[in-house]
Amino acid sequence: MKQLEQTIQQILTTCPCQQALLIRHLPSGRQFALNPDQVFPAASMIKLPIMYEVMRQASQGRLALEELLEVTEAVRVGGAGILQELRPGIALTVQELVTLMIVISDNTATNLLLNRIGLAAVNSTAEQLGLTNTVLRRRMMDFTAARAGQENHTSVADIAKLLEIMYQQTTLPPEYGELMLNILKRQQIRDKLPFYLPEDIAIAHKTGTLDGVEHDAGILFSAGGPYLISVMTADLPVNYQGLQLVAQIGRAIFEYSHTPSARANC
Hints:
Elements: H1 2-12, E1 18-25, E2 31-34, E3 40-41, H2 47-59, E4 68-70, E5 91-93, H3 94-103, H4 107-117, H5 119-128, H6 143-147, E6 153-154, H7 156-168, H8 174-185, E7 202-210, E8 213-221, E9 227-234, H9 239-257, H10 260-265
Antiparallel strand pairs: 1-2, 1-9, 3-6, 4-5, 7-8, 8-9
Helix pairs in contact: 1-9, 2-3, 2-4, 2-5, 3-4, 7-8
């Protein structure tokens, strides 16, 4: 992977910002990383451990994926998502809410799920999984809590570890890992890792965005893959620079994975 590492190091020089990444070829275990344990504002990456906790509780019979939750006026929040635009009082299943939380990063869906499973449960499970830099301190769009220092945090190493747990399907019954990956593959926000990729290339991923922050992490299923990719940026002069940085990294990994040398070395 030396050639790929050199290419990505050159890409990283184009953006004056905080940067961290971890790239691992899952079949061989070969990887390289930059600042893997640096703590970043999680943005919507925190929705990955939330999804995992929902599935964990479902696997234990503590909730049902078919259970209906009502979208009340009190729970609706702004930012990303569609539920804020719909009439209050509609009800969706837990699985539908997880899907909205991931594929369009719906904040109202996220808060509904958090009301059901509890913030403490997400943090407890993250700790048990060894996600040492991940903490959920507030609900989505709670700017008062954020200004008070109650920000959600994570790292590229933690997110990579969680994605690999989902992929390996060793901690939960396999059907839950498969369901999480299938939802991640239906991601509709494609302005980062998959931006330059052909439409038919599968990538199971989740993005995160705040002012000055752009993240993306997932599993790229390509000819030489699958590749586990986790990229985070902060202190961006303008967010567009982060979008393009991550997009170019995605393209570099895809192109490398299709070279004969990459296949021979994997």
